[in-house]
């Protein structure tokens, strides 16, 4: 079962590109806890 939404905290807008699809880059105020990395498949 997967979660439809996962709140990782507050962010600041860094940049955005294109329109369709739009790519938005955010910076989290706090680092993502390590336990979430396998579930999120985050590219670091």
Protein described:
Strand 1 and strand 2 (23-28) form a beta hairpin. This protein is mainly beta and 44 residues long. The mean pLDDT is 84. It is built from one helix and two strands; from the N terminus they run E-E-H. It has a two-stranded antiparallel sheet with strand order 1-2. The longest helix has 4 residues, at 37-40. It starts with 10 loop residues before the first strand and ends with a helix. The protein is extended, with a radius of gyration of 12 Å.
Strand content: 25-35%
- Helix coverage percent of residues? under 10%
Overall mean confidence score, pLDDT:
84
Number of strands: 2
Sheet of most strands: 2 strands, antiparallel
What general outline do the C-alpha atoms trace? Answer: extended
List the helices and strands and how they pair.
Blueprint: E1 11-17, E2 23-28, H1 37-40
Antiparallel strand pairs: 1-2
Any descriptors?
1 helix, extended, 44 residues, two-stranded antiparallel ribbon, 2 strands, mainly beta
Task: Please give a quick description of this structure.
With 44 residues, the chain is mostly beta strands.
